[in-house]
Structures are given as C-alpha cells and as structure tokens.
Design brief:
Layout (H helix, E strand, L loop, with lengths): L11 E4 L6 E4 L12 H21 L5 H19 L6 H10 L11 H21 L6 H11 L38 H13 L6 H15 L6 H15 L11 H6 L1 H14 L2 H36 L5 H6 L7 E2 L1 H8 L3 H13 L3 E3 L9 E3 H7 L1
Antiparallel strand pairs: 1-2, 3-5, 4-5
Helix pairs in contact: 1-11, 2-4, 4-5, 4-8, 5-8, 6-7, 7-8, 7-11, 10-11, 11-15, 13-14
Protein name: Fic family protein
InterPro entries: Fic/DOC_N (IPR025758), Fido (IPR003812), Fido-like_dom_sf (IPR036597), Fido_containing (IPR040198), SoFic-like (IPR026287), Tscrpt_reg_TrmB_N (IPR002831), WH-like_DNA-bd_sf (IPR036388), WH_DNA-bd_sf (IPR036390)
Pfam families: Fic (PF02661), Fic_N (PF13784), TrmB (PF01978)
C-alpha cells in the first residue's frame, strides 16, 4: 500500500519496503485534531463518572491496601494473557506467599515471571509518580527493562529502542503484517510522545490516553514488550494527570476480552483515520472496567460486613475470619505471625474456617499447604 492509497485524514503513510511496506506515523500532536462525535463525548462523560465513583469507594474501605495490590496483580495477569501467557491471578498470589521476602526466584516459569515483572514495573512507575517524577523516555526505558527481566528473547534490545524492523501479525486471516516505522525514526517520534505528555495533551485526559496508547503501539519502539508497556502507560498517564488516584481499574481485562477488535481498531486509525471509533472503543474499555471495579469493591465491602456479623467473638477463629480480606491467601504458619499464636492454635483456626467453607486448600499436597479465601477469590477473579 502506498501513500496515495491512504485517505488524507490517516495520521501517517506507508513507505515501500521489501517484502512489506512500513508505516510512518506523523509525530504528536495529531494535526488536524481528531473529530470526536457527540456520542463519544457522552461516553467520555460517563466513563469519567464511573472512574470517579470507583476511586471514591475504593480509597475508603478498610481493605484498601489489599485491594490496591490485588487489582495491580489482576491487571498484570490480564496484560500478559493478551500476549499469550498462561497464568492465573492465584499463581501470582501463591508466588508472593511463598516468597514473602520479595527476593526474585530464578526458577519461576516464564509466563508467571512476565506477570510478576509487569506488577513490579507498574508498582515502580506509580512510586516514581508519587515522588513527583514525570513520565519521561528515561522512565519508559527503565520500565521496559523491568518488564523483560529474565524473559527476554534472543535478539531483544532491552531498555532501549529496537535496532531492527519488526513485523506484527494481523489477527485477520490473509491480511499482511503491520510493519511499524524503521529504527531511524524512533527517537524523533518518541520525543514527540514525551512532549505531548508533558504539555498535558490537547483533549480530555481519557481521550489523550487513547491517543497516547495508539501512538505508542503504532510506533512500537521496542523489540518486545510493547503491548505490556503500552497498557501500563495508560494507568501511569491517568495517575500523572491526577485523573486516577490509584490503579483501581485494569483496562487490560477489557482489551483481552476484545483482543481482535483492540488490534483492528488501532490499525483502522492508521489506515483510515478512524479516530472516533478507536477513542470510543478505548474509553468504553475504561468505563466498563471502572464499573466492574466499583461492583467488585461493593461486593467485597458487603462480604466484610457479613464476616463481622457472623464472627463477632474474640476467639482466634473469629478474629481471623474478620481479617480474611486482608489475608486472602496464606499458609498455616503465616497465621502464627498474623495472630501471634502457637502453631497448634493456627492449625485449629485453619480447620475451623475450612469446615465453615470460608477457605480451601489449593495445592493438594500433604506438606506446605496453602489456603485461599473462597468468597474473596470468587469476587476478585
């Protein structure tokens, strides 16, 4: 496809190259500005309301810290699943229970390691923002190094822009691969992205988040990890703009459910200039996930009230039942520390809660048993 085959409002051009032409996007900001329909503007308003609502409820519950960590881990799992990783939220919780010191385990299988890397990178990025640091290319490269730690493929350039062309397979059968710009153009394009972020964009933050995500994925600046890093940047951007207090929404779950449309909507921007359709799809993802997070948080709050109502006493079993939302995945020896009790007492608490159906053993092993809070996991997963 040559330049003349693209409509005038396409934000870039195809450059002939063997065996497939590569796409050369225009730098940010987009000129002329994308035309946004009234319907999409209404969707932005609704999404903003839903995000504000989930931010409000999530930061006030007693288990806010655990919810914060859980949603980061769910986002990590969903993001790597889009890339084909086979990993469950429970796997991530199990890892942290087995490695409480935080030291890296080099024996972890690759799929789980990718999720752990994403969690670490997102947590690090949020910490940097909380310290007042802006989103810069230097930070983006640091995050890329964290995402690919111990999971890089041969030939990957880690922590710096790629030095070769890449070909992205289309989800549509028979369609040629999408080839992002050459390495020579990456520095200028990414500098325009950094400048756009620092200027605060040109639109509502949710619209700018859609533009930034499209641009990052289209430029595809790294040899691997672009999808994960691009989705991570959505959350960091909204937090940096003061639009999201904490990562209480996880957009990767929506993109994973609509994976083919996710890819095709971005390609339609490049080839047809279909900005409004992409922005509507993207913002609906944020709106939908915010709505889901609100309902999930509400259900967890009601579960907490139920445990407090059904276990009002001062026994160790009652005390821990009321703390299950703070410790949804644990081992019996963990209870020795949590409750400051003997091992015998800890095992009695486990037996009591297991008999009541509040927890279940998940390993199937005779030794080193691990337990999860059934109702909590049902809501989170």
């Amino acid at each position: 496809m040559t330049r003349r085959e693209l409509p005038d409002d396409a934000p870039g051009k195809y450059v002939p190259y063997h065996p497939n032409p590569y796409y050369s996007p225009e730098p940010l900001p987009i000129e002329p500005k994308p035309q946004i329909s009234d319907q999409t503007r209404d969707l932005v308003t609704d999404a903003a309301y839903q995000i504000g609502r989930v931010d409000g409820i999530s930061s006030t519950v007693d288990f806010a810290a655990v919810l914060y960590t859980s949603l980061i881990r769910i986002e990590a799992v969903e993001s790597v699943r889009i890339e084909g990783a086979e990993v469950e939220y429970q796997d991530v919780e199990a890892y942290h229970t087995q490695n409480p010191s935080g030291e890296s385990d080099t024996t972890v299988e690759k799929d789980l390691k990718e999720a752990l890397n994403y969690e670490n990178a997102l947590t690090y990025g949020l910490e940097r923002l909380n310290e007042g640091d802006p989103i810069t290319l230097k930070l983006i490269k640091e995050l890329h190094s964290m995402i690919l730690e111990d999971v890089r493929n041969d030939g990957d350039v880690v922590g710096n822009f790629r030095d070769h062309l890449v070909h992205l397979t289309s989800p549509r059968l028979g369609q040629r691969p999408f080839v992002p710009p050459t390495p020579a153009g990456l520095s200028g394009l990414m500098q325009s992205l950094e400048s756009y972020i620092h200027m605060g964009g040109q639109h509502h933050p949710l619209v700018d988040a859609a533009i930034i995500h499209y641009f990052f994925e289209t430029v595809h600046p790294f040899s691997d990890g672009n999808g994960r890093l691009g989705r991570l940047l959505i959350i960091l951007y909204l937090v940096s703009e003061g639009y999201l207090e904490s990562p209480y929404i996880y957009p990767s779950a929506y993109f994973n459910r609509h994976k083919v449309e996710y890819v095709e909507r971005m390609r339609a921007v490049s080839e047809q200039g279909e900005w409004d359709e992409w922005i509507a799809f993207f913002v609906e993802g944020l709106r939908s996930q915010a709505e889901t997070s609100y309902e999930r948080t509400h259900q967890l709050r009601e579960l907490q009230k139920r445990y407090e109502r059904e276990y009002p006493g001062s026994t160790n079993t009652a005390k821990f039942a009321r703390q299950l939302l703070q410790y949804p995945y644990f081992t019996a020896p963990d209870l020795v520390e949590y409750l400051d009790v003997s091992r015998r007492t800890a095992y009695k608490v486990v037996d009591d809660l297991e008999a009541d159906g509040l927890i279940e053993e998940v390993t199937g092993k005779q030794r080193g048993k691990e337990y999860k809070a059934v109702d909590v996991f049902d809501i989170l997963e």
